[in-house]
TrEMBL record:
<keyword id="KW-0812">Transmembrane</keyword>
<keyword id="KW-0131">Cell cycle</keyword>
<keyword id="KW-0997">Cell inner membrane</keyword>
<dbReference type="InterPro" id="IPR011922">
    <property type="entry name" value="Cell_div_FtsL"/>
</dbReference>
<feature type="signal peptide">
    <location>
        <begin position="1"/>
        <end position="26"/>
    </location>
</feature>
<keyword id="KW-1133">Transmembrane helix</keyword>
<keyword id="KW-1003">Cell membrane</keyword>
<dbReference type="GO" id="GO:0051301">
    <property type="term" value="P:cell division"/>
</dbReference>
<keyword id="KW-0132">Cell division</keyword>
<protein>
    <recommendedName>
        <fullName>Cell division protein FtsL</fullName>
    </recommendedName>
</protein>
<keyword id="KW-0732">Signal</keyword>
<comment type="subunit">
    <text>Part of a complex composed of FtsB, FtsL and FtsQ.</text>
</comment>
<keyword id="KW-0472">Membrane</keyword>
<comment type="similarity">
    <text>Belongs to the FtsL family.</text>
</comment>
<comment type="function">
    <text>Essential cell division protein. May link together the upstream cell division proteins, which are predominantly cytoplasmic, with the downstream cell division proteins, which are predominantly periplasmic.</text>
</comment>
<dbReference type="Pfam" id="PF04999">
    <property type="entry name" value="FtsL"/>
</dbReference>
Length: 109
């Protein structure tokens, strides 16, 4: 009976220690999950802020204002427009349509 009592006591201590270890691991994982959720919320806030900034920077009024103030650009006026004449650009030769439609094994005439 003495051995059985010792064996049951050892099993009880082992079960208690494994229960404490499992609870500690669960608490550690819960804290890590809470931190990850807080970081997710912060990243979501940052993403929303960056999307707003991108939309604000991409507005055409802001771009036009930056062109006028920083680059000193001006809108097109008919009186200041200069047209070039006498320049003829070479036209690109069109690709032959027969070469594209012929089957691979046949020759072209």
């Amino acid at each position: 009976m003495n051995r059985l009592t010792f064996f049951l006591l050892a099993a009880l201590i082992f079960c208690a220690l494994s229960l404490v270890s499992a609870q500690h691991q669960a608490r550690t994982l819960f804290v890590a999950m809470e931190r990850a959720q807080a970081e997710e919320k912060q990243l979501d806030v940052d993403w929303s802020r960056l999307q707003y900034q991108q939309s604000a920077l991409g507005k055409s009024a802001r771009i036009a204002d930056a062109a006028r103030t920083q680059l000193r650009m001006a809108p097109i006026m008919a009186g200041r427009t200069q047209y070039l004449s006498g320049i003829v650009l070479p036209q690109a030769a069109p690709a032959p349509a027969a070469a594209a439609s012929a089957p691979a094994g046949e020759e072209r005439p």
